[in-house]
Every structure is written in C-alpha cells, then in structure tokens.
Amino acid sequence: MKYIHLYALFLMFLFCASCKGQAKTGVLNDTVSSQGPDKMVRNVKKGKDGSILIAASLAGIFRYDGRSFTNLTSNIGARRFWNVLEDRQGNVWCATTESGVYCYNGASVRHFTTKEGLPNNSVMSIYEDRAGTIWFGTRGGASRYDGKSFQNLTTKEGLSNNGVHTILEDKNGKFWFGTGGAACSYDGKTFTVFRNNEGKTFNNVWSIIEDRKGNIWFGASITDYKTGDTLFISPGLWRYDGNRFTKVTERAASAIMEDTKGNIWTTGSVSPNGVGDWILSRYDQSTLYDEKPAVTKITSIKKMLCGILEANDGSIWFGSINGVYRYDGKTIVRK
Predict the structure, then answer these.
(1) DSSP per-residue codes, 26-87
(2) Which Pfam families does the UniProt record give (predicted)?
(3) Which of 91, 140, 313, 319 has CA atoms 20 to 30 A from the CA of 227?
(4) What pLDDT, in 10s, does the model give residues 142-163?
C-alpha cells in the first residue's frame, strides 16, 4: 500500500466526426526535418499509411514516414499538443490542452473550440469508433459531434467525472471511459461506474484497451483510505474478462498496448505520485493469465514515459519528457 497527497485531476470527453462546417484557419506549409521533436511527446499513433504520428507539446504534430519528420502544424504556432488521430477519411485531428482541436485534411486546417460547441478547450483524448464517429475527451465533459452540432455529456447526464483521459469501444459496442475520478462504461443510455470485487472504484485511469481475446486492460489506482488531504492508494494493472476484475500486477500503468504477438506493453511510474523513475514494461503473452505473469523491464527514465505504439516493422515507439524513442528489440534510439 502506498500513498500520495490529494490532488485534483480533471479532463473529459467529446464526440466529433469530420472537418466539415467549421471556421477555416488557413493553408499549412509543412516543415521537414531529419530529427524528431525534442519536447515532451504525450502520444504516438499510427497513420492510415503506416506512418508514425507524434503529438509533441509546444513543438507540433509530426508525421514520420521512415525517412524524415514532417511538422504538420508549423503555421499554427506553439500549442500544448496532447494527442493526435488520423481518421478513416485521412483527416488528422490534433488535440491541445488550451486551444481546442485542429483538423488537418492535407491542404488546410480547421479549428474547433467552445465557440463551435466543445464543452472545454482542454482536450486530452481522440478516438474513432467502429461507426467512424470521432470522440474527444475534454476537461469540461464528453461531447459528440454529428457534423453540424455538438452533443455534450457531463456529470449532469451521469458521467462519473468531467475529466476524461481515455475512451474505448469494446466488441459489444459498450464504451469505456477512463477519468481523473472513477472510471465508467456507457451503453448509449446509461453510465455505470465499474468497481473491483470489493466494491471500490477504479480511479485516475489513463489508458484502456481490449485484447484479441476480448479482455479489457487498464491501469488504475484503488483508494484504500484517506487521512486529511492524503490518499492512501494501491496502483496496478487490471484485467476484466467480462465477469471478474483481476489485478495483474502492482506496477502502475499509464499507457497500455497489445502488440501483434499478444504481448502487453505498459509505461508507468514506480512511485504512485509520478515522481522519479518511469518504466517501459512488456508482459509475455504466454504467461498473461498466470498468477504472476512474466514481465520484462525494457528501460526506465526519469520523470515521464508516455504513449506506446507498435510500428508496421514490429518496432516499439514510445513518448517521453524529452522526445520520442524507437526500440527494435535490441537497441533503444531517440529519434
């Protein structure tokens, strides 16, 4: 059992679908470099063509094609970019924590803010569901965009917390929300806070995935008790098989990914308050359901490790406080 001081985390969700119908910002002139960004990289995603998309705070949104890095947001200026997604139509959505969302169609960029109906301009998450609808998580609530207007979902509608970090649609069409408070699910009508076998909520969830077998994986903190302004918590990596929540390990997990071989990868801090070393870990697929799964520590770094991605060549990319790294199974190289 470990402890941290009580601190407020707010963020939330938002629905969106295309770049149509919003105020045009202008045409972008991309800049190209042989080097990747040297700023904090929060998220790394895969583009439609297999390229690597990188969200670097105060540096930009970059696309790596295997040879060079192209800054897609050169003309937008310095923004606190947090997340990125290329949708099925080829639009690149760029989330910021202070100025809403930018949508780049390859020629021009459009800007979405609270003026267009977003619940908040601090956007942490972007997700495209199976129907092609784009979801966003903001500090002010969840929102859905139908191409004309936004439908906002907040605690007034039953959302567990107005700070959504991540979202997932599972194979049954249920949506899972990780928030700064309790995590919850949504069936299209009702929000349900999910709890462990002792009835306690899963808090401060930053990543949720569904593996190839249909199990839900997420990192969360369980509050054991509170004394004054201090929370005593137990962090960990959890798995849900549709009936039961199983704590896989005590190790924290802020980002989670399943690779093509079925291994589970995580980044997470050693300390529950995020201070000190952060670790990139791999859980071997052959032992995932053992009482103590085999875990390999790939590397550690001070302060922060962020999003994880498996590239088409099998290499693992991950963000950090000082840029983006590539691991080829033997060597880690900063790009």
Answers:
(1) EE---EEESS---S-EEEEEE-TTS-EEEEETTTEEEEE-SS-EEETTTTT-S--EEEEEE-
(2) Reg_prop (PF07494)
(3) 140
(4) 888 777 778 888 999 999 999 9
| CA-closest candidate to residue 208, choices 233, 234, 232, 174 | 174
pLDDT at 64: 97
Note down the domain range covering 18. Answer: 2-334
The CA angle 89-90-91, to the nearest 5 degrees, is: 95
* CATH value at residue 63: 2.130.10.10
State which residues of the chain have pLDDT below 50.
1-18, 21-24, 27
Q: Are 324 and 313 in contact (CB under 8 A)?
A: no
For 86-122, how does the pLDDT look when each residue is reduced to its tens digit (9 = 90+)? 999 999 999 999 999 999 988 889 899 999 999 999 9
3-state secondary structure 210-235: ECCCCCEEEEEEEEEEEECCEEEEEE
Cα separation, 21 vs 38, in Å, equals 35
Report the number of distinct structural domains present in the chain: 1
